[in-house]
Structure prediction request, 387 residues.
Amino acid sequence: MTSIVVHVKELALKGKNRPWFVKLLVRNLRTALADLPVGSIRSVQGRIEIEIASESGWADVRDRVRRVFGIANFSVAGRASLDFDELAAAIVADLGGIAPASFRVRARRSDKRFPLTSPQIEREVGGRIKEVKGWHVDLVNAELTIHLEMMGDHAFYYFGKEAGAGGLPTGTGGRVACLLSGGIDSPVAAYRMMRRGCSVLFIHFHSYPILSRASQEKVREIATLLTTYQLRSRLVMVPFGELQQQVLLAVPAELRVVIYRRLMMRIAEKLARAWRARALVTGEVIGQVASQTLENLTAIAAAASLEILRPLVGMDKDEIVEQAQRLGTYPISIIPDQDCCQLFTPRHPATRARPEEIERAEAALPIAAMVDAAVAAVEVVEFRFPG
Ligand code: ATP
Ligand code: MG
Prediction:
């Protein structure tokens, strides 16, 4: 078995764009597998074939392919001629010593000009395998399914399927910028945008040196993990502590969270535009905390003129936690740190900040200068996978 057959997801729906989607998927697979011993990676009649030197490298390759977006499923496969005797012999040789209670053959033709129908192919090949192995055929509940794909000039066969990451290939969805805290929600929000094919810029606001570097370290770790999916990332660290102290001196306690967030939005918009990102992404969820009432979400969004995407807006916390656990960001997110917005924040922030109040509070601050100062002081970190 020296091939991996990759089936693309959703791409079939994309009509004229399909070749472009497949091209990017092939490119992403090449990047993801760059340091592993794989041969050619190419698109063949609606699938992608990855040649591997031997089955021994399969585990590493599998781990990488699983993270690449745009894949429905993939299998380690053998390649054989279209001749039924040769094909059945190759399959029997690769089956090894297994002894399933029942089996069936499932055939698909990528080239419909093949002279036999799929059920006929299944009978021909299944019959030959049964002759050698003596296994019982069960078309409904087989323990072992042998998959065949009849290509133009050869056949692929494989015995199981691995689920792919789904979504759309990275690079097909355009650029967005995600406000990435060290918390549980925003990494999940970033992942969901990445899965839809977007390239995500990460923006983190920290209060170092007023607070420790803990949040920055967490976000670096989260960015490293998310980069195993999107393959290249950029993280922008924004020093926010001084701005917060200015807010602290000038803004009534209950309004501070909304004012902090509005400052973040303005800064993030500038950074996003410089990177040609078309939208801001947050991990906000309706009603989760005081700053996330519908009124406050609206007031915060109004500070920026870029589209704001909130992929988690309607989710429950336990659903988000479950995704974070599957993604692997959860254990990093729950490491204690002092979130920059907990600093100087009252226990009872306004749940419905009114526009007039916000305007009055901000009139006391040199907003444009604050934003420019923060943008000028950012630190940029680049990530690549494989490293
Ligand atoms: P999270 O788990 O993502 O931190 P949360 O439930 O703690 O979310 P908030 O802290 O109110 O909610 O933050 C709402 C959103 O604002 C976050 O999901 C994130 O997108 C953004 N955000 C908050 N703090 C920061 C920060 N320090 N740096 C970057 N973005 C932030
Ligand atoms: Mg938070």
In short: The pocket of magnesium ion (ligand 2) is lined by residues 181, 183, 339 (CB under 6 Å). The longest strand covers residues 71-80. The chain has 13 helices and 14 strands. The chain has a mean pLDDT of 94.
